[in-house]
Records
---
Amino acid sequence: MNNLILIGMMGSGKSTIGKAIADKLGWKHLDTDKMIEDMQGMTIREIFDRYGESHFRSLEAKLVEQLKTVESTVISTGGGIILNHLNTMVLREMGLIVYLRALPKTLNANLEGHTKSRPLLDHQSIEVIYKVRDPLYRNSAELVIDMDLLSNQEIIDVILNYTKR
Ligand code: S3P
């Protein structure tokens, strides 16, 4: 199926870059966090605070199941989507998975002023989460983009060129 799925850490720019690529391709853009918030009528922060992370993860897995049939869509995912191997398997079937890889230093800079909406950062640092997740993202993705030295436009061009190969 012809979809593009962006994975990576919080603060890697999955939403911004996803939207720009979708506009460029004339495809639809979906953002799993935004969809969950809309469907629940609550923010991610409220879902975590009221029901806990495991409830959020099950909402995320249910949503991935529902997205199985989309086409010509760029999907920006929540940073933890690959924690569930089933999600990764489904997403692989749906299209090209791209890992937007950025170093903790870059991620922290991008997240400045945006950490309140990321409940995981209440108790864990980006550095620790990155150490655990970087191998998972790499295993899940077909294309890994080292973003630290690239502009958003360059990242978009790399992805678009790859899809044209
Ligand atoms: C999470 C990342 C968040 C959101 C939730 C959990 C994570 O999405 O899904 O707070 O586990 O890394 P973003 O990657 O869009 O910030």
---
Amino acid sequence: MGTVEWDTLREAATRAAADAYCPYSGLRVGAAGLCDDGRLVVGCNVENGSYGLTLCAECTMAGQLRLTGGGRFVAVTCRGDGGELMMPCGRCRQLLVELGGPECLLDTPNGIRTMREMLPDAFEL
Ligand code: THU
């Protein structure tokens, strides 16, 4: 993989956030992931009246990874619809480790970091 075009990824995540279904929280979240074959997949949060069954943006992005050819994530960013940086929740960090591995890069308030740093000693079967 060549260098990651973070600005392209951030813009894609911000655009995806606009598609969120979030009548309960009002928080629009978008996720964008660069895949190991160079394609880019996005997701947005899809809430649920039960609250707990809400799909985070990373979850729908994971579905897109699988539905559009599979592969692995190499770099991910999450953004609000105003472009603000968002961090994946704990469940979604597990998702990113499983689908991107510990070397997958994540955009964080402290710079670009690996998923190994963001979820140390992750659960493995
Ligand atoms: N949310 C995400 O989309 N990703 C995360 O990693 C954390 C939370 C969404 C879920 C819910 O629709 C809203 O943010 C407020 O929790």
